[in-house]
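Quick illustration, no need to memorize.
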Amino acid sequence: MRRVSKDINDEHRYDDIIDYDYQGSSNHRHMPRSERAAQFMPFAALEGYGDAISETGRQTSSRITLDESEKEVINNKLKYLNDNKYLDISVKYFIKDTYKDGGKYEWYNGRVKRVDDYYHRIVFIDKSEIDFDDIVEIRIVGVDDGNY
């Protein structure tokens, strides 16, 4: 019986098969390199952990409390908008975060359809709505004097 060397340092351990041509499989198609490489791609052992870390690091803003003079300016602009329909405005408003305390402020640009005093909101032509309580600033496009 012939003994095969199992020494991992043996330079000639594959000499008997190194020159054979690869025959392939008659039962399976040849797998492309891109698919073969996918077998060795890293995977997320803790699924969702990266999302949780990102969510923890995400910053939110506190809601701004307006003083009486700032509230009066907004109320005057709302009255002006109620009397003058279909004006283009920019509104800075607060969006409450659904997962954390606080939220963020965004600007919305649109044309006013109506000021809804019953539900306390501005309704726009595109059917968007912003509650009065969330508004911190209103800019009326084309009106520069500031007396509303």
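Residues 5 and 101 are 68 Å apart (CA to CA).
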